[in-house]
Amino acid sequence: MLQSLGWNLLTKDWSDLLSDFQSAEREWRTMVDERYVLVIDDEPDFLDYVTIVLSANGYRVRTAGSGGEGLEIMRQDPPDLVMLDLMISYALDGWKVSRQMQSDSRLRDIPVLIVSAIVSGEDDDLLASAKGGRVDAFMSKPLEPSALLSCVAGLMRTS
User: Fold this and answer.
1) Which end is more exposed in the chain, N or C (fewer Cβ atoms within 10 Å of the end residue's Cβ)?
2) What is the CATH number of the domain that holds 99?
3) Three-class SS of 64-119
4) Looking at the DSSP assignment, which residues form a beta bridge with residue 37?
């Protein structure tokens, strides 16, 4: 059966097999219309709020309380969208997470929605270019449910 999927176990290394599996899983999730969002933020109440809003509207949601945890989850289970707070920790803030995503071929095409309570939407382009991170959209906290859903749906259509 694996041969019919184009896999030759003798010539592929395990990282190639994992990458193939992850690609097939993403295709399957798209076919069943379950899109997966990873939310990275250090505020448990915010994580709960976003999880409730997105889950109630058909999205599969995973959360991470730090940038390191978020990157680990992404590498094991690549999401369709990453929602990323800028100020998660000084050791690995949102910009550093975004830059690490850009340097990883498995993660660089994942859209990034930046959320922040300290940066306004007008600063989005300036900060993105100054920090060198990927920003597909920006939202200021607190988030209105309808605006969040509209933004997420728009990013999912373009990914």
Assistant:
1) N
2) 3.40.50.2300
3) ECCHHHHHHHHHHCCCCEEEEECCCCCCCCHHHHHHHHHCCCCCCCCCEEEEECCC
4) 61, 81
Q: Is residue 84 part of a domain?
A: yes
Query: Smallest Cα–Cα separation from 44: which of 77, 95, 88?
Result: 88
Q: Is residue 8 part of a domain?
A: no
- Nearest 10 degrees: CA dihedral of 58, 63, 68, 71? -10
pLDDT band at 1 (very low <50, low <70, confident <90, very high): very low
Phi, psi dihedral angles at 44 (to 5 degrees): -55, -35
pTM: 0.74
Instruction: Report the domain count for the chain.
Output: 1
What is the rounded CA–CA span in Å between residue 155 and residue 153? 5
